[in-house]
């Protein structure tokens, strides 16, 4: 090949690479442009509701106290989050509510609400809003001038939302909502003798023989249902454990059928590999829906869905690990007169076991997260409680509680699987 020919070939090659280098970014840019237009990214700003987002975030670390008056009977009920199981006993309430013939609600900062036959809200910087609800309507009277943005009024309904709280008046009901920081009633409900006690006082009761009663009141908390929540966490972990290790047990013998060096007949290898493709080709959520129709809801259905999906995944990984074993070690074991099972036990498994254990433990950690979503579909585990709390759109602090527990569970499984990998594979308990 002459120098001129070589030079021309080199120029053509550089030209081709240059075109490729320019074409790839252009294709990616065209694809991103299509996504931008197709998904209407430009209109996203118009669909975002900042107020809803702010309310959602604030609900995650606060709670509402409801002070509600039945306008027909005049009775007043005070409860946390408006729930009967969080209701104050008759004649009692928080210190910012003064019960009497006319109930006074002090929201702080000069915001004062009076409940009675005539209800009123004295709003600092605006004035006094009064209403006398009856069968004809709310009959509200406002200070002169246009209504401010924080007041939404009609004939049968008035809603006032200020930084201090929210006040709603209808013909049948007048209700005050006051937000406070924290997760109220998290430890004990209002009917518990330990409600309102500090840590030192609780320790004093515990050391005088009431430890079991304290734990029982916490565990059976009707508002936060700690006992049900931790049982749901156990169900989620059980789904992940049964599904992952069940899949490993099923996939290991089938992997020998798919390994070229252990199954000479191609038809068996083909059948085993296509079965693995089918099992892992169907997503775990699809298996969950199918199995829930066949076996009904429950944690076992979720475990079976994980088992089917991971059997296909493990089968592929295990068969590839078996195909990469060192034949010399097997031949050495065979030369000692070992039987077939002994050759597998001492010649094959020591080589593949670290890879197998590492993958199984990793998938156990991953399936702990997946079991949350699967549980939401099959009706089991913490996923069910999470979707129920989200569906109510009321107690987002409970949603936060469940999410925190899920994160802690995943972190615990990550730590446990890492320790097991060091212990079983490298024999190092300290991680050094």
SSE layout and pairings?
Blueprint: H1 3-38, H2 44-47, H3 50-60, E1 62-70, E2 76-80, E3 97-98, E4 103-108, E5 111-115, E6 119-123, E7 127-131, E8 140-141, E9 151-153, E10 157-161, E11 166-170, E12 173-181, H4 199-219, H5 226-258, H6 266-281, H7 284-295, H8 299-323, H9 327-335, H10 340-378, H11 381-392, H12 396-426
Antiparallel strand pairs: 1-2, 1-12, 3-4, 4-5, 5-6, 6-7, 7-8, 9-10, 10-11, 11-12
Helix pairs in contact: 3-12, 5-6, 5-8, 5-10, 5-11, 6-8, 7-8, 7-10, 8-10, 9-10, 10-11, 10-12, 11-12
Count of DSSP E strands? 12
Q: Largest beta sheet, briefly?
A: 6 strands, antiparallel
Measured between the Cα atoms of the first and last residue, the distance is: 59 Å
Give the overall shape.
elongated
Give the spatial strand order of the biggest sheet: 2-1-12-11-10-9
Output the radius of gyration.
33 Å
Order of helices and strands: HHHEEEEEEEEEEEEHHHHHHHHH
Query: What's the CATH topology label of the largest domain?
Result: MetI-like fold
Query: Class of the largest domain in CATH?
Result: Mainly Alpha
Beta-strand residue fraction? 5-15%
Q: Give me the CATH superfamily of the largest domain.
A: MetI-like
Number of helices: 12
> Based on helices, strands and strand pairing, what is the structural class?
alpha+beta
CATH architecture of the largest domain: Orthogonal Bundle
Number of domains: 2
What is the percent of helical residues?
A: 55-70%
Mean pLDDT equals 85
Low-pLDDT regions? none
């Amino acid at each position: 090949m002459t120098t001129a020919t070589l030079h021309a070939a080199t120029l053509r090659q550089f030209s081709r690479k240059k075109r490729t280098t320019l074409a790839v970014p252009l294709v990616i840019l065209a694809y991103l442009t299509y996504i931008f237009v197709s998904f209407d990214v430009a209109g996203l700003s118009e669909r975002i509701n900042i107020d809803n987002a702010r309310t959602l975030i604030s609900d995650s670390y606060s709670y509402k106290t409801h002070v509600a008056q039945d306008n027909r009977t005049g009775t007043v009920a005070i409860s946390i989050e408006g729930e009967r199981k969080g209701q104050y006993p008759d004649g009692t309430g928080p210190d910012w509510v003064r019960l009497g013939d006319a109930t006074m609600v002090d929201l702080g900062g000069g915001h004062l609400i009076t409940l009675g036959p005539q209800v009123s809200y004295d709003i600092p910087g605006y004035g006094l809003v009064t209403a006398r609800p009856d069968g004809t309507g709310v009959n509200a009277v406002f200070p002169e001038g246009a209504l401010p943005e924080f007041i939404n009024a009609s004939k049968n309904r008035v809603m006032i939302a200020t930084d201090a709280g929210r006040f709603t008046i209808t013909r049948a009901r007048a209700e005050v909502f006051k937000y406070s920081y924290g997760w109220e009633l998290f430890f004990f409900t209002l009917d518990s003798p330990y409600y309102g006690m500090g840590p030192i006082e609780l320790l004093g009761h515990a050391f005088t023989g009431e430890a079991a009663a304290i734990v029982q009141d916490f565990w059976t908390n009707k508002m936060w249902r700690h006992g049900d929540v931790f049982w749901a966490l156990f169900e989620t972990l059980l789904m992940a454990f049964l599904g992952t290790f069940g899949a490993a047990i099923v996939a290991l013998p089938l992997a020998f059928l798919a390994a070229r060096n252990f199954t000479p007949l191609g038809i068996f290898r083909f059948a085993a590999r296509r079965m693995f493709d089918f099992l892992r080709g169907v997503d775990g959520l699809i298996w969950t829906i199918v199995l829930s129709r066949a076996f009904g809801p429950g944690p076992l259905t979720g475990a079976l869905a994980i088992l089917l999906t991971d059997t296909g995944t493990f089968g592929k990984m295990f068969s590839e690990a078996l195909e990469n074993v060192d034949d010399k070690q097997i031949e050495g074991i065979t030369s000692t007169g070992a039987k077939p099972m002994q050759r597998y036990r001492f010649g094959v498994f020591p080589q593949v076991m670290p890879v197998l254990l590492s993958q199984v433990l990793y998938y156990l950690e991953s399936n702990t997260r997946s079991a949350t979503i699967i549980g939401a579909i099959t009706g089991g585990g913490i996923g069910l409680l999470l979707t129920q709390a989200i569906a109510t759109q009321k107690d987002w602090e409970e949603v936060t509680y469940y999410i925190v527990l899920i994160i802690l569970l995943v972190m615990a499984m990550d730590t446990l699987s890492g320790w097991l990998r060091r212990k079983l594979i490298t024999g190092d308990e300290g991680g050094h």
